Amino acid sequence: MSESIIVYKANNHLEASSCLSNLIIEDIKSANKNCYSIGLSGGNTPKVTYSMLKNDIEDLSKILFWTVDERWVPIDNENSNQNLINSFFSTSDAQILNVEFTNTSADEDAQAYSKKLQDSISEFDTVILGVGEDGHIASLFPGTKAIQNKDDLYVSNEVNIVTQWRVTATHKLLASAKNVYLLVTGENKKAILKTILDNGTTPANELIKNRKETILITDQSI
Ligand code: 6PG
Predict the structure, then answer these.
(1) CB 69 near ligand 1, within 6 Å
(2) Non-local CB neighbours of 124 within 8 Å, separated by 6+ positions
(3) Which atom of ligand 1 is nearest to the CA of 68?
(4) CB–CB of 190/202 below 8 Å?
(5) Nearest residue (CA) to ligand 1, atom 7
(6) Domain parsing of the chain, residue ranges
(7) Residue-wise over 5-38: b if at least 16 C-beta within 10 A, else e?
(8) Which of 72, 79, 131, 188 to probe ligand 1 with, by most ligand atoms within 8 A of CB?
(9) Ligand 1 atom at shortest distance from the alpha carbon of 140
(10) 63 with 95: CB under 8 angstroms?
(11) What is the architecture, at CATH level 2, of domain 5-218?
């Protein structure tokens, strides 16, 4: 596959966030669907974008948000990505597919969410991904088991970063999405950005290799 990565260079984080929000809103309009799905990551980078999407999407009732990855914690835990997503969208008209935390088995919770996704989403329209300084995306951290999973859409993954367990979309799911946006901003991401653009061997690069096209938005110049 001749994969391609399209880079949008912004002057700062706000401009990068606005660029991403505008690209997504444009695609929502052109898709003209009654249920447009958007996968949301945790972390800090996408928060400004989420705020813009909340304010600027014309009809949030036509949007279904799902959770790209979740630290395996109760929803009221400060580390919960579901908590972060709900803080932006739970009072809106959007539909939110919550990851359920049972505190019995991360594997069972991942399987339950995988079923929920497949029952609720016919096409993964857009996914917003941050990128860690080690090149991880979602909870697909270098050297962890989930990186190798080629069969499932959503799995548990033992990472021992912030939490022992995570539940996460896999490369298979992320590769299948119509649009994937990597939002990579801040001085601290300059080095990993260079690695990614130099055809590195990070999980972000693995995803890019598995897709025809991936869009990367950054405020860093390489
Ligand atoms: C998480 C995220 C993770 C995040 C990166 C970047 O659960 O933490 O889903 O993949 O996107 O770690 O995080 P920042 O945006 O905070 O740099």
Answers:
(1) yes
(2) 37, 39, 173, 176, 177, 178
(3) 9
(4) no
(5) 42
(6) 5-218
(7) beebebeebeebbbbbbebbeebbeeeeeeebbb
(8) 131
(9) 10
(10) yes
(11) 3-Layer(aba) Sandwich (3.40)
Q: What are the structure tokens assigned to 214, written together? A: 């991936």
Work out which ligand 1 atom sits closest to the CA atom of 137: 10
Place of tokens 């959503």: 154
Q: Residue with structure tokens 């001749």?
A: 2
Q: Report the SS3 class of residue 206.
A: helix
Q: Are 143 and 13 in contact (CB under 8 A)?
A: no
Taking each helix axis from N to C end, the angle separating 81-89 and 47-56, rounded to the nearest 10 degrees, works out to 30
- Each residue's pLDDT expressed in tens, for the chain with a length of 222 residues: 567 999 999 999 999 999 999 999 999 999 999 999 999 999 999 999 999 999 999 999 999 999 999 999 999 999 999 999 999 999 999 999 999 999 999 999 999 999 999 999 999 999 999 999 999 999 999 999 999 999 999 999 999 999 999 999 999 999 999 999 999 999 999 999 999 999 999 999 999 999 999 999 999 998
Return the ∠ at Cα 15 (arms to 31 and 35), rounded to 5°. Answer: 20
Residue 203 in tokens: 């999980």
Angle formed by the axes of helices 47-56 and 13-31, nearest 10°: 40
